[in-house]
Amino acid sequence: MITGRAFPSRAVSAGRVISSYQSVSALFFVIAAPDGKPPCTSPGAALDRRKLMAVVSKKIPAPDKVKVKTALLSVFDKTGIVELARALSEQGVRLLSTGGTHKAIAAAGLAVTDVSEVTEFPEIMDGRVKTLHPKVHGGLLAIRDDAEHQAAMKAHRIEGIDLAVINLYPFEDVRKAGGDYPTTVENIDIGGPAMIRASAKNHAYVTTLTDPADYAELLAQLSADAGQTTYDFRKRMAAKAFARTAAYDAMISNWFAEALDIATPRHRVIGGVLREEMRYGENPHQKAAFYLTGENRPGVSTATLIQGKQLSYNNINDTDAAYELVAEFLPENGPACAIIKHANPCGVATGPRLVEAYKRALACDSTSAFGGIIALNSLLDAETAEEIVKLFTEVIIAPDVTEEAKAIIARKPNLRLLSVGALPDPRAAGLTAKTVSGGLLVQNRDNALVEDMELKVVTKRAPTAQELEDMKFAFRVAKHVKSNAVVYAKDGQTAGIGAGQMSRVDSARIAAIKAEEAAKAMGLAEPLTRGSAVASEAFLPFADGLLSAIAAGATAVIQPGGSMRDQEVIDAANEHNVAMVFTGVRHFRH
């Protein structure tokens, strides 16, 4: 998880990071205000250091082993809960529980005490209030070796709770399902996070479990050590518990920001659940992991790995780029294929059949496509699979795969095959984030589509119908190419792609060279750039980039416009009878 406080731009530039730390599945940072004070100005918010020292000065050592005598079980996800309760009962552990969890355990014939019997207060307000009581939280928070705490427990008849097994209302699932506002709010858990935080804070004495996957390790410890847990285990589970509640609150916070249409909330929190640890990161000396944010967007994070090795860090990054690109081509308009290397397209094409779309995309730059990622916008069939396995490929990602295609891909056991079930909606809103030293850049996803733009013809000659289609195709691809980006396209196929150059004219030249090389490989008399449309993802600052494209054979140009020298570029286009349109929308990509 990454969390920060937003400031006006002047404060951010003058601010500094005052604290940061990592936990089991989280990263936190806090930015200080320019004067060096913590970023909080509410009355009474300043930390009283004397009080802090009074709290920590007791220095009561945590015991290594703690006997589990009483357990509180309160879960929404009841996976394995009855089996856990039975095993605890066999160890002589007294079971406390609530609501549906109590019913499930009791129905299994196990002795279990309802929390209301402990609190001597009934569950009220449709279950909103049931565990928010001193007899519950006192039992979780009491320092067992503190005489004052022991006296308070005795005076108020509070029983110590040694194990808390808690998981939360399914806020994530309700949000993903598009629940209405009242339903979503009702699924914000209050008592669960409170108990998790209380027990995790007191991990010196209390074990906190928030994940059914940890039940087996708990039972193994209890069986091996006379019903006791170790301090190391309790500490690890506490770290996991705090990460869980932090991620839960992050999702609620972000949902409120979306519901209220707040683009820049004062606190922006991004949380994730560990999907898997990578063998390494972008490079072998870097550690890495893949986290899921809970965003309900089809793609590599939601895909099923049908076959192949674990995806690497670079595989995931490239596959995401490939699938987002190919999703710009709606299946109802025909099959499309994108081939990606290092998050940049080598070739993109459409075709009457998927196999033809693949062949045309491959022809754009068959050399660079070696070891690439192939993304398809429609069902992967056997005919296309037969063509794909002829070339070394890292990953194939598609909405679905036929059984025949699966059998063909299986000939290449290391080839990773992903089935997603759907394409991401290129118009859907969302956020992207990029870390910088001491901060986080967050922005809306670039969901602008050329189909929705008001294209303005700025030259004497208007584009033909075919040129206009090629323009749109090229601009659609240019959106997904690292800046500076220049893309030539003709008849639903990229002819040359120039990516990531510091000079736009160099991108135009590189794209033309790629087109010439592809023409030679295909045995063509001239490159596909002859009679093509060319797209620039940002404005052409000088006429030189345009002239380079014209020299390569382009007859139509699409670009955002907006340069101080727009007229110079327009004049050059008119001089060469080239059609040019402005989109008014830029697609920088870094």
TrEMBL record:
It comes from the Bacteria. GO terms for cellular component: cytosol. It catalyses: (6R)-10-formyltetrahydrofolate + 5-amino-1-(5-phospho-beta-D-ribosyl)imidazole-4-carboxamide = 5-formamido-1-(5-phospho-D-ribosyl)imidazole-4-carboxamide + (6S)-5,6,7,8-tetrahydrofolate; IMP + H2O = 5-formamido-1-(5-phospho-D-ribosyl)imidazole-4-carboxamide. It holds the Pfam family AICARFT_IMPCHas. InterPro entries: AICAR_Tfase_dup_dom_sf (IPR024051), Cytidine_deaminase-like (IPR016193), MGS-like_dom (IPR011607), MGS-like_dom_sf (IPR036914), PurH-like (IPR002695). SUPFAM superfamilies: Cytidine deaminase-like, Methylglyoxal synthase-like. PROSITE patterns: MGS (PS51855). Belongs to the PurH family. Residues 60-210 form the MGS-like domain. The gene is purH. This is Bifunctional purine biosynthesis protein PurH. Pathway: Purine metabolism; IMP biosynthesis via de novo pathway; 5-formamido-1-(5-phospho-D-ribosyl)imidazole-4-carboxamide from 5-amino-1-(5-phospho-D-ribosyl)imidazole-4-carboxamide (10-formyl THF route): step 1/1; Purine metabolism; IMP biosynthesis via de novo pathway; IMP from 5-formamido-1-(5-phospho-D-ribosyl)imidazole-4-carboxamide: step 1/1. GO terms for biological process: 'de novo' IMP biosynthetic process. The IMP cyclohydrolase activity resides in the N-terminal region. It comes from Rhizobium freirei PRF 81. CDD domains: IMPCH. Keywords: Hydrolase, Multifunctional enzyme, Purine biosynthesis, Transferase.
